[in-house]
Predict the structure.
Amino acid sequence: MLNGAMTLSEEEQPFRRLTGEFVLRGVGLHSGQDCVLRVSPAEGGLFLSAGGTELPIEQLGLDGSSRGADYIFPDGRRIRTCEHVLSALTGMGVWEARLSVEGGEMPALDGCAGRASEEILRNSEPCGEGLESFKLASPLIVGAGERLVAAFPAPEFRITYIVRYDTPVIGTQMLSVVVGPEEFYGGISQARTFAMASEIEALRAHGMALGGSLDNAILVGESDVQAAGGLRWPDEFVRHKALDLVGDMAALGRPLRAHVVAMRAGHDLHLRLAGRLRRLAGAGCLH
């Protein structure tokens, strides 16, 4: 339950349809600049619009090298840090929407998908059918060794995520969940982004985390954490990584039926897998 305000029924449909438009405003997590996102109903998929150009998200370039999921238009324009809003939409079952961005980055909001999920719930309704899913026919693996993401055929979208950090504050954590609106809303959407205190100076020197604060992130020290209200779950860290993965798989542009297993991964590996899935979908490997 989010802030005790809303719940989903146990009979919740796996897909939702937007019934109206809503606007999200705030600073960008990395740029620190004011950003505006307008989310409105659409037909046929997820569309990203910026600077007068609109394209389906599966036709946009991807870059996960800068601590977020960036989408790149053919002219080089990019929208930074799209993962949390896309996670909110697709985690809640919305696969048809138009996202119009001003400011070059999605607003950071609460550093997770909580506020966006609440707005989606207020401005949507369950629907029995959505876009046709992509059902993976054979395993895919990107990365190697201790850092990898693999996808295996499955009848639904399941995530198993494992993180391991040297700091005892996090240590090793694992989460395995079938992703649907109920599970996403109650167990993943409020897990906040986090950063190591030792990284902040270097991140900001490279133009990242300029909009980060304890209002939208968890700061992890050597032996403690700083977080508004404390941790929401003892394993909030791996829950947030699962949130990121849900959002990054949205790059496929349609629901995915596969079991995605991630070990010590991040946006770079998530989006490499999404790119492989895009190529399979484009080749007509739909089953």
Q: What stands out?
A: Residues 1-5 have pLDDT under 50 and may be disordered. The chain has six helices and 19 strands. The chain has one domain: 15-282. The CA atoms of residues 138 and 153 lie 6 Å apart.
